[in-house]
Design goal:
Layout lengths: L8 E7 L6 H11 L8 H6 L6 H11 L6 H17 L2 E8 L1 H5 L5 H13 L6 E9 L4 H13 L6 E5 L11 H9 L3 E6 L5 H11 L3 E4 L7 H9 L3 E4 L1 H6 L11 H6 L3 E4 L4 H4 L3 H11 L4 H14 L4 H21 L4
Parallel strand pairs: 1-2, 2-3, 3-4, 4-5, 5-6, 6-7, 7-8
Helix pairs in contact: 4-6, 7-8, 15-16
Bound molecules: adenine and zinc ion.
């Protein structure tokens, strides 16, 4: 399938550190004189069979050892943007984990300058934004300090998110952080209901006041929550290949995305950590359409939901809507009539 067989994509759930491909880890390790976090690249790749989110996060954080300078962060971001453009990404809101780098002694400026500098030089026609995330398994006081530093920096960012190990770290722990972020006029999102319970999704909405939920697949455990999410059209950024690789879901054919669509939820498809989970956003669309036998209209709805969930102005949203409509018209025109 060519990239045109998948819709023009609005990528709202991708962690820039999760785009670090093994080859680039090797190059950055050589360039920076940093020891590879594995014997060699084959050994590294052999470790990409995860038992759960925590197992993945251990490797994800260990591999970040190769990221030391602004140029390292820029190289990672440029490589992502190039691959994203090939896969039809038209707008991306990129997550970054500042605390994972600050904890290793890398200054915030190096992280922000590297990533934001590369975003500013994104491929022609692609729009971008940056969303720093707080690590929910680190102290709230640290998140408050990082928020202050982010706000003081001269790098523009769209909003803030919440990620890392979910179970045992409820959204409500971060109420003060999100209240301050809201007071700064920032957009608010949070991971919830990936491995954690549906109650974390409710908390993210009620206590943090988030506008989008990242993952949210466990919402299906609570029928009242499903009704609420559908009625309020709360966007849920779902990452099918991630859910299978992290064993939140047994197989792609069992993925709840189809049930979520049937329930009228505002779901869209994204990649999470594409270098680790076997695919970018186009791969996720292709895989899920095939495994769940989604109809052409359902695929179009997924693409439209992503457009509606993006933090863009009216003019850009209109352009993105038009691109999805043109793609669907081209596809439908090319389909043999039966
Ligand atoms: N950080 C990177 N990927 C993540 C995921 N899938 N869940 C939570 N935190 C993450
Ligand atoms: Zn994620």
């Amino acid at each position: 399938m060519s990239a045109q067989d998948t819709p023009p994509a609005v990528e709202l759930h991708v962690h820039v550190e999760g785009t670090l491909e093994p080859e680039l880890i090797g190059e950055l390790a050589d360039r920076g004189g940093v020891a590879l976090p594995s014997a060699d690249l084959d050994d590294l790749r052999a470790r990409y069979a995860f038992t759960d989110l925590g197992h993945f996060l251990d490797l994800y954080y260990a591999n970040m050892a190769v990221l030391r300078t602004a140029e390292d962060f820029a190289a990672m971001t440029r490589a992502y943007l190039e691959r994203a453009a090939e896969g039809g990404v038209r707008h991306v809101e990129l997550f970054v984990d500042p605390q994972a780098h600050l904890a290793r002694g890398v200054p915030l400026e190096a992280v922000l300058e590297g990533v934001a500098g590369a975003l500013a030089a994104a491929p022609v026609g692609m729009t971008t934004g940056l969303i720093p995330c707080f690590l929910r398994d680190r102290p709230v006081a640290e998140a408050l300090e990082v928020l202050d530093a982010l706000v003081r920096s001269d790098v523009a960012f769209l909003g803030v998110g919440l990620d890392s190990a979910e179970v045992g770290h409820p959204p409500s722990d971060f109420a003060e952080v999100y209240a301050r972020a809201r007071a700064e006029g920032l957009r608010l999102v949070a991971h919830a209901g990936e491995e954690g319970p549906a109650a974390y999704v409710t908390e993210a909405l009620d206590v943090l006041g988030v506008e989008r939920i990242d993952h949210g697949i466990r919402s299906l455990d609570d029928p009242a929550l499903v009704r609420r999410l559908a009625e309020a059209a709360v966007p849920l950024t779902v990452c099918p290949l991630s859910n299978v690789r992290l064993r939140a879901v047994d197989t792609l054919a069992d993925h709840p995305l189809a049930r979520m669509l049937d329930a009228g939820l505002a779901v869209s498809v994204h990649s999470d950590d594409p270098a680790y989970f076997g695919g970018y956003v186009d791969d996720n669309h292709r895989a899920v359409a095939e495994a769940l036998e989604l109809s052409p209209d359902q695929v179009r709805t997924l693409a439209e939901n992503a457009v509606e969930a993006a933090f863009v102005d009216d003019a850009r949203r209109a352009e993105l809507r038009a691109e999805v409509a043109a793609w669907a018209a081209g596809r439908d025109g090319a389909r043999p009539s039966s």
